[in-house]
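ugh ok fine here u go
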Amino acid sequence: MFSRSMTNNPFSGTVVQAGPLPEMPRAIPTESEPARQEAKPGDSGYVGLILSPIARLKPADEPLRKEQSELLGLLSALGERVEKLIVAVRAERRAQLEHELDEVTEAGSKQSKKVRRLDSECRMAQAAWMTLSSEAKALGGQAAGLRERYQEGSRWRSRAELKQEQARIAEAQSKAQKAAEKATEAHQEYRKQERMLPAETEKLEALTKRQIQLSGELSGQRYQDPFTGLQTRPSL
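structure:
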C-alpha cells in the first residue's frame, strides 16, 4: 500500500484522501448584524464630515449667513445623493457576492462528489491490480514447478505420461500469461485513476478557498484570506 495524503497536499502523486467541501458560514446579513451591513442615507458620516466645518461657522454679516445657509442646503442634498449611491453600490456588490457564493457552493458540492468518486475508483483499481498481480505470480509459480518436475523426472516416464505433463505445463503457462496480462491492464487503469485525482482535488481546494473568501467578504468583519494568508478587510 502506498501513503495517502489529505486534501491540503494534492501534489504528492499518491491517492489523495478527499473529504466533503467544508461547511463555511454563509455570511448573509441579518437584522442583528451591525448597521454597516444595512446602511441608510446618512449612516456612513460622509455628510457630517462635509457639513460640520461649515455649520460651525458663525458669520456676523447677513450675506455671509445667507450664503452659509444656501451652501448647507446644497451640500445636504448632495450628501444625501452620495449616501444613496454608496448604499446602492454596496447592495449591488452584496448581491453579486451572494450570487457567486451560491454558484461556488453548488460547484464545490459537485466537485467534492467527483473527488470522492475518483478516490473510490482509484482504491478499487489498486485493489484489483494487487489481486490480479498475486494471482499471476501464483500461477507463474505453479507453471515453473511443473516444468521443474518434468525436467527432473522425465527419464523414467512413458511418452504418454510425458505428453500429459507437457499439456499440463502448457495450460499452466497459458493461465499465468493471461493473468499477467490482466494484471498489467489493471495496473494501467490504476495509474490512470491515480493521475487524475490530484488535479481534481486541486480544483476542489480552489473552490473551498473561494467559498471562504466570499463568506469573509459578506461577514463585514476582518477575515484571513485563504489565498494570501493575510488578514483582510471586507470591501463592503
